[in-house]
């Protein structure tokens, strides 16, 4: 049996479409799971080699179930990311008209992407969340809801028809998905990489968050995501999910992570992996003084000073 990738199912999710864009997916058995948690658990138990799950969208930010799963429990590592442009179709059973729709469903992350459309076209419809957009389509097929927002491609799979297509409140809405596996050495840098970490502050004090961010800023590292998540240990108690430009094998990133390790209560490394938004080698020019050579030269100079050879 080939190694398997778990993904947020059932069949017909945007997650499945995004997963199939990865060349390595063609050589794996792709197994749908009912939730992000169960897909990630399949990796933790060794049932699946890796799991593919949504993690962020350009309209609402981080997908909190996924972030919370990566923040807690047995550590997992992100190996790849995929960006997918998202537009929704309103899927109904054949014969349903707009005026018949009293209940609608989709994944919670879909709602901010269709809210204005709903207000304009179905202001009185009751919204209930589904485990995924394809699961919403399945529930419409079963007669549990009148309509589901999902990919148009999911219609045929669930015996539904698209009553409306190309629904998106925001132009160019994109969702980011990640391939997550058990911890192992990150892939070699491509020249356009991203590093994800979770940071827990040691203590609350004025400027505590700025102190963490400074570890990146002073080394010329740009941040791409900064999302706070409650630790569950009381009001005002948060950890921070951070995506930063660069790879852990870059000196500036390694030094920033060393700095964070010293000043944070805890740091969880979630991986260094190729960026999906730009081609290999396409990262922004480095800030003066932050190349590997400059870090190494500075370190050599300190050693010479310590040895009295300056
Ligand atoms: O993959 C899906 O279909 C999902 O349910 C997750 C999701 C939610 C909203 C936009 C893209 C993906």
Automatic annotation (TrEMBL):
Molecular function terms from GO: prephenate dehydratase activity
SUPFAM superfamilies: ACT-like, Periplasmic binding protein-like II
Record's keyword terms, sorted: Amino-acid biosynthesis, Aromatic amino acid biosynthesis, Lyase, Phenylalanine biosynthesis
Catalysis performed (reactions): prephenate + H(+) = 3-phenylpyruvate + CO2 + H2O
Pathways per UniProt: Amino-acid biosynthesis; L-phenylalanine biosynthesis; phenylpyruvate from prephenate: step 1/1
EC number(s) from the headed UniProt entry: 4.2.1.51
Domain (Prephenate dehydratase) ranges: 4-182
GO biological-process terms attached to the record: L-phenylalanine biosynthetic process
Gene3D superfamilies: 3.30.70.260, Periplasmic binding protein-like II (3.40.190.10)
Site (Essential for prephenate dehydratase activity): 175
Residue ranges of every copy of the ACT domain listed in the record: 197-274
InterPro entries, A to Z: ACT-like_dom_sf (IPR045865), ACT_dom (IPR002912), Chor_mutase/pphenate_deHydtase (IPR008242), Preph_deHydtase (IPR001086), Preph_deHydtase_CS (IPR018528)
Origin superkingdom: Bacteria
Primary enzyme class: lyase
Pfam families: ACT, PDT
Gene Ontology cellular component annotations, sorted alphabetically: cytoplasm
Oligomer and partners: Homodimer.
Listed NCBIfam families: PRK11898.1
Name of the protein this chain belongs to: Prephenate dehydratase
Lineage: Bacteria, Bacillati, Actinomycetota, Actinomycetes, Kitasatosporales
């Amino acid at each position: 049996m080939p190694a398997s990738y778990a993904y947020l199912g059932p069949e017909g999710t945007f997650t499945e479409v995004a997963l199939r864009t990865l060349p390595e997916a063609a050589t794996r058995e792709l197994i749908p799971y009912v939730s992000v948690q169960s897909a990630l658990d399949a990796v933790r138990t060794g049932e699946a080699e890796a799991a593919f799950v949504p993690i962020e969208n350009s309209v609402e930010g981080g997908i909190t179930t996924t972030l919370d799963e990566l923040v807690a429990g047995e550590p997992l590592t992100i190996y790849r990311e995929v960006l997918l442009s998202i537009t929704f179709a309103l899927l109904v059973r054949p014969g349903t008209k707009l005026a018949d729709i009293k209940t609608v469903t989709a994944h919670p992350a879909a709602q901010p992407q269709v809210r204005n459309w709903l207000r304009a076209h179905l202001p009185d419809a009751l919204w209930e969340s589904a485990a995924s957009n394809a699961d919403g389509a399945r529930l419409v097929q079963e007669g549990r809801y009148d309509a589901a927002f999902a990919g148009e491609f999911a219609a045929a799979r669930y015996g539904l028809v698209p009553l409306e297509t190309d629904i998106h409140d925001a132009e160019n809405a994109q969702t980011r998905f990640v391939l997550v596996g058990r911890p192992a050495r990150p892939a070699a840098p491509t020249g356009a990489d991203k590093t994800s970490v979770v940071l827990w502050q040691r203590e609350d004090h004025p400027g505590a968050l700025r102190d963490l961010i400074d570890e990146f800023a002073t080394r010329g590292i740009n941040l791409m995501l900064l999302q706070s998540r409650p630790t569950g240990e009381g009001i005002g108690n948060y950890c921070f999910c951070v995506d930063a430009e660069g790879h852990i094998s870059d000196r500036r990133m390694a030094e920033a992570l060393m700095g964070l390790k010293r000043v944070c209560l805890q740091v969880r490394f979630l991986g260094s992996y190729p960026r999906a938004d730009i081609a290999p080698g396409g990262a922004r020019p480095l800030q003066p003084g932050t190349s590997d050579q400059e870090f190494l030269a500075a370190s050599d100079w300190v050693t010479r000073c310590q040895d009295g050879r300056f």
